[in-house]
Amino acid sequence: MNFDQARFSREDVYEPLLSEKDSTTVEVDADGVLPDDLTRDELTLPGLSEPQLARHYTRLSQMNYSVELGPYPLGSCTMKYNPSFTEDVAADPNAGVHPDRSDRTIQGTLGLLHGLQEYLADIGGMDAVTLQPPAGAAGEFTGILIAKAYHEARDDDRSEIIIPASAHGTNFASAAMAGYDVVELPSDEEGRVDIEALEAAISEETAALMLTNPNTLGLFERDIVEISEMVHDAGGLLYYDGANFNALLGRARPGDMGFDIMHYNVHKTFATPHGGGGPGAGPVGVVDELAEYLPSPMVRETAHGYEQYEPESTIGKVHGFAGNWLVLVKAYAYIARLGDAGLADASAKAVLNANYLASQIDLEVPYGPFHHEFAATSGDRDAADVAKRMLDYGVHPPTTKWPELVSQAMLTEPTEVEDKASLDDLAHAFNAAYADSDEALETAPSKTSARRIDQVSAARNPRLSWQSLDDSE
Ligand SMILES: *Cc1c(COP(=O)(O)O)cnc(C)c1O
Fold it and tell me: Is the model's pLDDT at 115 over the cut of 90?
């Protein structure tokens, strides 16, 4: 692909709001339906035809970028393409059951939930799984509350959670929200857990160590068995952040490495939609000893069919009912369709793709050998500028400036779904952007529908509708 073919460049297009296209005042007659002081007599609406509407939304969609359009190599996010058959399964009218129905009348629903509990337990090497948490971060919080309940039940008052400095920000937040002090662990010069520093950090205050493996640089923690023994010998628990599970899927299990608790990001690893603010799911798996603390309800199989039950010492609820049901349906469909061999194939290709892409780019990758993702560095060029410029070459850029261990990091995770041509497109975008002039980088993106936005104001002072933008002027 060359520069002139940027796939989502729509700089020439301004698509007006529907209300800017047309405002028609219509009379409404709500007499007798609602109290008079709550109703209006007139309403201003866009008076548009169906084709006008269809074109409006199609134009908007063409100003956007998505994983259905091209690669989306955001490191740590595992933005893999979501196969559409999972949507068909979730759209089955039988999937639309009311959550308050009695167990007897929703055996199929409960069977699916039970099946997913079992699939995930098997894939992670865990003994029991709750499907309730609605995201990875919520799964972490749930897992840490379970660790807390476990220690409290043993009258073992512990105040600290150890987390590597390279961990995802949600790990620190989850530990702090559960009331723990966070002990930050430095990395060794190879980018892995520093065993000596870990030794020094562990004490009888250690409630848990949170780790992801491979870590956020894509490096496998080779000393995981030793790490696990160190934590367990001190009476602590080992928590697995499952966001990087795509690297190990079908090949290695956190449970076998000694982890006691883990969350799964089904919207990363198991190809359910991710981003855009839609619902996700962050199921949590635990070893036998912790199963009694899981959130309620869980689903079990009895001689009379499936039933929901409350674990003996449950930490309570972390979400309504069984969790984000339709997301769980999609995860189930994905796992069932791929099977053992398909899951193992996914992780193999995820690792191969990351390694192929890294071999094709001119940027240095300081740490390795890596698995499903790598942290390249843009050296003396600003990583955010290079990323913005990559947009002009028609691809989505990687995660930038994180983890901090690599200066000007470009954390790149192509996932298994990309073919060689698409990886070559990505490499071209990397290399061309990296080699561009300072001016091109500082003014990028110049070929997209939205130019460089003020990210700090957007985060600190969000305006969530065009009306509030209007009001402020
Ligand atoms: C994405 C991610 C999380 C948080 O998961 P969400 O589902 O986004 O809440 C936690 N840890 C790591 C390493 C992640 O990449």
Answer: yes
pLDDT (tens digit, 9 = 90+) per residue, 275-320?
655 688 999 999 999 999 999 999 999 999 999 999 999 999 999 9
In angstroms, what is the span from residue 247 Cα to ligand 1's centroid?
15
132, 358 Cβ separation under 8 angstroms: no
The Cα 146–Cα 161 span in angstroms is: 13
Question: Domains of the chain, with CATH numbers?
Answer: 3-63 (no CATH), 84-338 (3.40.640.10)
Q: Model confidence over 224-271: pLDDT tens digits? A: 999 999 999 999 999 999 999 999 999 999 999 999 999 999 999 999
Q: How many CA atoms lie within 13 A of 131 on its CB side?
A: 29
The tokens describing 263, both together, are: 């969350």
Per-position b or e across 128-141, b if 16+ CB within 10 A of its CB? bbbbbbbbbbbbbb
Give 250's Cβ-side CA count (13 Å radius).
18
SS3 label, residue 238: strand
Residue 100 burial class via C-beta count within 10 angstroms: exposed 0-12, middle 13-18, buried 19 and up: exposed
- Dihedral angle sign, alpha carbons of residues 214, 264, 119, 260: positive
Q: Is 274 in the pocket of ligand 1 (CB under 6 A)?
A: no
CB of 266 within 6 A of ligand 1: the answer is no
Nearest-angstrom CA–CA distance, 374 and 412: 5
Q: State the closest ligand 1 atom to the C-alpha of 78, by its place in the atom list counted from 1.
A: 15
HSE-CB for 74 with a 13 A CA cutoff: 14
Residue 298 near residue 117 (C-beta atoms within 8 A): yes
- pLDDT digits over 30-63, tens only? 778 888 888 888 988 999 999 999 999 998 888 8
CB burial readout 151-162, b (16+ within 10 A) else e: beeeeeebebbb
Rounded Cα distance between 32 and 222, Å, is: 72
Centre a 10 Å sphere on the Cβ of residue 97 and count the other Cβ atoms it contains.
Answer: 14
Give the Å distances, CA to CA, from 238 to 58, 207, 227, 286, 287. 48, 9, 9, 10, 11
Distance of CA 97 to the CA centre of its chain: 27
Query: What is the residue type of 276?
Result: G
Q: How far apart are CA 275 and CA 336, in angstroms?
A: 24
Ligand 1 centre to CA of 137 (Å) is: 6
Q: What distance in Å separates the CA atoms of residue 252 and residue 331, rounded to the nearest whole number?
A: 19
Rounded distance from Cα 390 to ligand 1 centre (Å): 24
Q: Strands 181-185 and 237-241, how do they pair?
A: unpaired
